[in-house]
Design goal:
heterodimer, A: mainly alpha, two-stranded antiparallel ribbon, 4 strands, globular, B: alpha/beta, Rossmann fold, 2 domains, six-stranded mixed beta sheet, four-stranded antiparallel beta sheet, 42% helix
Chain lengths: 314, 262
């Protein structure tokens, strides 16, 4: 079911074509901006989908890792004078290390218990970012210098569109590779029956920890991009609502569908923009539309449509 | 040397002795059956042998090595595999992928290689799939390997679990009620699969309620009642044992049985 749409190469090719062709329809920088945001969020959602959709382990605190990545490219240059690209990599290393330290004890928990433990982790990061004002600027956040690499400065929405889109394609390919490997099969097995996976020789604790670290690194890179793109960070990046937003993108697009991650991110980034027309009712309409999606496409957008399409083709 | 040696295994849950001082000696190449009335501790015993439960007392040796307290995934690497009474299928995965997970202990894995899909990963995937398909055809599931596992019928799922365990190339295979809920034809298929396993030198530990299957196929039968060993021996010996008859039919039933024979 997961591989319902087409052969192995079809999806990456479709996405690459989409990335290249999409700008042709853009009439202003605003479109580039929204599209760049979609790809940045989609990157974090792919990572979270590896954890939730494939391995079946929920995280309600993933914005914590987004926050670590975002503040890495803010604090690093401001306090240590480090170049942004190095801070981005450093943020990924810190996120991975934190995921390792936090994941070891909490990944023993299951279901709701794991959800609450990860929720606690996310809150913890947000509180630290709020309170350590000397380092982080507190609730007001801080400015972020733009990314420069080998003398080239990543500036403007158009440049960020390409950076975000290409990184997403890379992240998409890595995630697909992982799922078509012994590690990926073991993770999917853990989702359905931990006990059967263990009996077949899968070191369940280790595999869960590995995917938790990988998903943290995805979130961290997305967080760094978000900060560099916006030119500023606030503790909201790491907030509870951001975590929920990421989970909603995973579920809406389709658990265990990597393509669904892009679709889920696109819907929840673009829809609020499209609904601003309705002013006061924007949020209410957004909620209503998401509910309707989930009622009629209950496995998430991409898997549900794939099943419908397969049935129609017969 | 015995492939499995369990000495005086005991485990209690909340003060109730589920298994109390049970010892097993299993010779390599045998079909060793464990039978007993409901609640006599058969599955609990299998869970201890496969490392899912830690015994309160007693020791377990596999092929001469003390494996007491090893977690299941380490035991799997010693060549021990099992199936489950209540099916534990990876329902989100395809039939073939279910069995490919069974190859896990033979696969080289590295996060970086897996993320970047080195050519070695592609090569290994192909080998794993070939082995998985071979295991599937052994249990008669060779057709339609790419169907979702969740779409198979009950009897087929039972055999899928056996194929998955087989793919790990076990020396010792524990089957927990492989024929439960199967119709006579499916039970016959399970019978044939077990016989073919033994031919390949796999030692089979069978927990089963279907007495015809057990008596047909077993070299040795171990009878449990209320967590203790009631009797053991060849199928003929066990069948003739009055205590076993009483445990299954009750004292009254065993008198009836004796009268019927007279």
């Amino acid at each position: 079911m997961r591989a319902a749409i087409g052969s192995h190469l079809l999806q990456p090719m479709m996405i690459t074509v989409l990335v290249v062709v999409l700008p042709l329809s853009f009439t202003s920088a605003y479109y580039y901006r929204v599209a760049a945001l979609v790809f940045i969020f989609a990157l974090a959602v792919v990572g979270l989908n590896l954890l939730m959709g494939f391995a079946g382990q929920v995280s309600l605190g993933h914005a914590g890792f987004v926050g670590i990545g975002a503040y890495a490219v803010a604090v690093g240059p401001a306090h240590f004078g480090a170049p942004s690209w190095l801070c981005l990599l450093g943020g990924a290393v810190v996120s991975g290390s934190v995921a390792f330290a936090v994941g070891r004890p909490i990944l023993r928990l299951k279901g709701h218990y794991l959800a609450v433990a990860t929720l606690g982790f996310g809150l913890l990061v947000a509180i630290v970012l709020n309170n350590e004002a000397d380092w982080t600027g507190g609730p007001d956040g801080m400015g972020v210098p733009s990314l420069s690499l080998f003398g080239w400065r990543a500036h403007g929405t158009q440049a960020w569109y390409w950076i975000a889109a290409l990184t997403f394609v890379g992240g998409f390919l890595l995630a697909r590779n992982l799922m078509d490997s012994p590690t990926g099969r073991a993770l999917q097995a853990i989702h359905d029956s931990e006990i059967a996976a263990r009996v077949l020789g899968v070191d369940v604790a280790r595999k869960k920890l590995a995917v938790f670290i990988i998903s943290a690194v995805y979130a961290s890179v997305a967080g760094s991009y978000l900060a560099l793109f916006n030119g500023l960070v606030t503790p909201d990046e790491a907030g509870f609502l951001r975590s929920i937003e990421l989970v909603a993108m995973v579920v809406l697009g389709g658990m265990g569908s990597i393509l669904g991650s892009l679709v889920g991110a696109a819907v929840l980034v673009v829809l609020p923009q499209a609904l601003t027309f309705f002013q006061d009712y924007e949020q209410a309409l957004l909620g209503l539309i998401v509910m309707i999606f989930m009622i009629f496409l209950r496995q998430g957008i991409v898997p549900s449509l794939a099943v419908a399409f397969a049935g129609w083709r017969k | 040397m015995n492939i499995l040696e369990a000495e005086r295994l005991s485990i209690a849950f909340g003060g109730v002795h589920a298994i109390d001082g049970v010892s097993l000696s299993i010779t390599a190449g045998q079909v060793f059956s464990i039978i007993g009335p409901n609640g006599s501790g058969k599955t609990t015993l299998l869970n201890m042998i496969s490392g899912i439960y830690l015994p309160n007392d007693g020791r377990i040796h596999v092929a001469g090595r003390d494996v007491t307290g090893l977690p299941p995934h380490r035991l799997a690497r010693q060549g021990l595999s099992r199936t489950f009474q209540n099916l534990q299928i990876f329902t989100h995965m395809s039939v073939a992928n279910n069995v490919m997970v069974g190859r896990h202990r033979h696969e080289q894995t590295g996060i970086l290689a897996d993320l970047l899909h080195w050519p070695s990963v592609t090569r290994q995937n192909a080998q794993t799939r070939t082995a998985a398909l071979a295991a599937l055809s052994r249990v008669g599931l060779g057709n339609a390997p790419d169907r979702p596992a969740g779409s198979l019928a009950y009897g087929a799922l039972k055999r899928l679990e056996i194929a998955r365990a087989l793919a790990s190339e076990p020396k010792l295979l524990l089957l927990d009620e492989p024929a439960a809920g199967c119709n006579p034809v499916e039970t016959q298929e399970v019978d044939q699969v077990i016989r073919s396993l033994v031919k390949d030198g796999i030692t089979v530990v069978l927990v089963e309620h279907d007495m015809r299957l057990v008596m047909n196929i077993s070299d040795h039968v171990h009878v449990l009642a209320r967590g203790r060993t009631l009797a053991e021996g060849t199928p003929q010996e066990v069948r003739a044992n009055p205590q076993v008859i009483e445990a299954y039919l009750g004292a009254h039933g065993s008198r009836e049985g004796a009268n019927a024979r007279a």
